[in-house]
Amino acid sequence: MPAPLIARWTDWHGQGVEHLVLRQSSGLRLVQSVVIGPGTAAWQYALVCDLGWRTRSARLHRIGQDLAVELRADGLGRWTDGVGRPLPELQGALDLEIGVTPFTTTLALHRLGLRSGETASLAMVQLDADRLVFRRVERRLACLDRGRRYRLDTPEETEFEVEDNLLVTAWPGRFRRLVPQPA
Questions:
Q1: What gap in Å lies between CA 136 and CA 124, rounded to an integer?
Q2: 173: phi > 0 → left, psi -120 to 50 → alpha, else beta; which?
Q3: Helix/strand/coil (H/E/C) assignment for every residue in 5-53
Q4: Would you call 22 exposed, middle or buried from its count of C-beta atoms within 10 A (0-12, 13-18, 19+)?
Q5: Which end of the chain is more exposed for a tag (fewer CB within 10 A), N or C?
Q6: Contact call for residues 119 and 61 (beta carbons, < 8 A)
Q7: Contacts of 182 (CB under 8 A, 6+ apart)
Q8: What pLDDT does residue 19 have?
Q9: Distances (CA, A) of 67 to 44, 54, 97, 171
Q10: Sequential pLDDT tens for the chain (183 residues)
Q11: CB atoms closer than 10 angstroms to residue 63
C-alpha cells in the first residue's frame, strides 16, 4: 500500500487551514479532511473515490452541529442520500464541489486528464458547507497549461495553479497550498 499523501491549504488571507490525508486501499481512494475556516466555522469531510477519481461516497459534517450530509454515487451519475433514497435532481453529475476546500477540484482534473487548450463541461454536486445542503450545478473547466494552470467557470471565471499531482497550489482570492515542513 502506498504511503498516504498529506496536504494542507490555507484560505487566501491565512485565516483558516485544511489538513487532508489521501490513502489508497483495496482499489479505492480514501480522503479524510478537517477544515478550520476563518471565524468560528470548522468542518470534517470524508470521501471515497474509485481509481478513476469518481466520487462513490461523501460525508460532510459541520463540527459542533449534530447534522451531516451523506451522499453515495454509482460513478455513472446516479446519487442517493445516506440511507439509499434516490436523488434524481443530481442525475448526471459525476463530480463533487465542496466550496471550503480546493481538493475536490482535483477529482475532475484527474478524471478528465485535459490537455492544454481543451475544455470540458461538468455537471457537479455542490455541497454547501455552511447550510449542509446540496444541489446540481454546471461548470466549465479549461486547461490553460496541462498539469500547471486551469480555469473554472463558476458564477465568476477563476484561474488556479496545480502541482504535478494536480493538487491546487494557488487559487487567487481563495486558497494557497502550505508546504509541509520536514519531520
A1: 6
A2: left
A3: EEEEEEECCCCCEEEEEEEEECCEEEEEEEEECCCCCEEEEEEEEECCC
A4: buried
A5: C
A6: no
A7: none
A8: 97
A9: 12, 25, 19, 29
A10: 678 999 999 999 999 999 999 999 999 999 999 999 988 899 999 999 999 999 999 999 999 988 899 999 999 999 999 999 999 999 999 999 999 999 999 999 999 999 999 999 999 999 999 999 999 999 999 999 999 999 998 777 899 999 989 999 999 999 999 976 544
A11: 12
Cα 142-148-150 angle, rounded to 5 deg? 20
Separation CA 159–CA 39 (nearest Å)? 26
Residue carrying C-alpha cell 490555507? 10
- Note whether 37 and 64 are within 8 A (CB): no
Question: Using CB atoms within 10 A of its CB, is residue 52 exposed (0-12), middle (13-18) or buried (19+)?
Answer: exposed
pTM: 0.93
The pLDDT assigned to 183 comes to 42
Secondary structure in 3-state letters for 108-141: HHHHHCCCCCCEEEEEEEEEECCCCEEEEEEEEE
